[in-house]
Amino acid sequence: MTEILNPTPGSIVSCRNRQWVVLPxxxxxxxxxxxxxxxxxxxxxxxxxxxxxxxxTLKTATFPLPSSISIKDHTAAMLLMDAARHLLRSGxxxxxxxxxxxxxxxxxxxxxxxxxxxxxxxxxxxxxxVGVGKTIEGGxxxxxLLDRGEIKRIAVLCPPHLCDQWQQELREKFHxxxxxxxxxxxxxxxxxxxxxxxxxxxxxHIIVSLDYAKAERRRASFITHCPDFVIVDEAHTCTRPSxxxxxxxxxxxxIQQIATESDAYGDLRQRHLLLLSATPHSGIEESFLSxxxxxxxxxxxxxxxxxxxxxxxxxxxxxxxxxRADVKQWLGNETPFPERDSEEKPYKLSKEYKQLFDDVYSFxxxxxxxxxxxxxxxxxxxxYWSALALIRCVMSSxxxxxxxxxxxxxxxxxxxxxxxxxxxxxxxxxxxxTDQEQAVDATPTVVIEQGKxxxxxxxxxKLRAFVQAAQKLQGDKDxxxxxxxxxIQTLLSEGFNPIIWCRYIAxxxxxxxxxxxKLEKKGSQIRVIAITxxxxxxxxxxxxxxxxxxPQRVLVATDCLQQFSGK
Length: 567
Prior knowledge:
CATH class of the largest domain: Alpha Beta
Low-confidence stretches: 563-567
Shape: globular
Number of domains: 4
Number of helices: 23
Strand order of the largest sheet: 8-9-7-10-11-6-12
Distance between the termini: 50 Å
Number of strands: 17
Radius of gyration: 29 Å
Structural class: alpha/beta
CATH architecture of the largest domain: 3-Layer(aba) Sandwich
Helix content: 40-55%
Strand content: 5-15%
């Protein structure tokens, strides 16, 4: 083997008892190497001076000639030849990325890539329908720009429950290794980097929760260290809100600052920005225009129903939207989109449960009706949220009703003046948001307390009666539970492994306990497990792995699992 002092990119060298491919390096004093049998995570750098001093040695790589022992059969030889042929054919195409993909893109998925390559700075909104393949289209653009050397780093901003899905898609389909940065992973990632290095700048490719990056204490540092190519998934959550949504306003400000950031000389940084959304237009034109304004500032001033031909052409170069019907037949290729088979299972409330609901509904209406003009805006809104939370927890399950109402019965103290109300926090307990950093699956006790900080003796007697009624409903008189058990038994008999999503922790544990009593009988191979926000991320992973070992299984979970795994 011959020693090489200045290897050229693409050379195959031997070093440290391993064969490497020489990669282009930004720093002339460093030789970048990637192992032939490795990936981007194993890229190493060798300081040029170390080679000159003889501490590190790079030599031309040699490979032994094939021997009769290593010869395989005809089938293996044909398989190897076909693999090499496909790799060479893809790599010789007009796009450099095709040789690095683990999938064959459908022809219509190449259209956004062609649009991106026509733009000097990629500013593109892909609004294709669900299932058309926006993730693949975004990954194609990222992979192509990486292979052309036009970008160095990638950031994906998305809701927390999609982070792991993006990581898997980029790794398996595009050979892009990215780390997930969100509240549950940030501490571990920070411990693995050198002191004085920022988490957003140390890792080459990052997938960041939108709500993690938008926080006031992190937004400036993210923008400072933001990569030169940014993909924003579920971009409709980043429009300028028409209401007082603090969370959405922060998301919009984050993306706006990324799009309009200036360098040290005051010049606008030409950062590539790719927005993905299946529902970019919510019916509010101002919000949609604020999304278009992230691509080009002048787009925000457009009047969509009176566009000139020049405006229409310019907008069309930055915006693409197609429905499934538009691409099902495309250039002679048919895409068989799967059909979703949804079915509703109605149930009737038992007489006792209906009576409880009617009583709680009347009580909730009383909370709202007792608002007066001398109350602050926050107090009046607190009453409305409290009424919604009461009805929501009672209809979730008797267990959720008991867990929530018991707290109000035992609470003591005086009413205090409510001067401020966090609407985003209230909605996270009552509604079902999936775009927030943390899924709140606890019972909405804190919301009900906003309606009335202290209940009088009469109200407490009513609450005690509600609790006693709810306790008696658990089990046979809960027709919702019985209907659920019947449906699960049917699915198990058909060979399925069902997943039951519950809104609150109390409901999930209640349903899981009932299913265990019914299904986990002696000699049964069925396993029922509940996963809720009570468990840490490590505990959730352990329980998921445990569940996979059973031939038949039922998972009962809250939305915390979607935030955790993206499954």
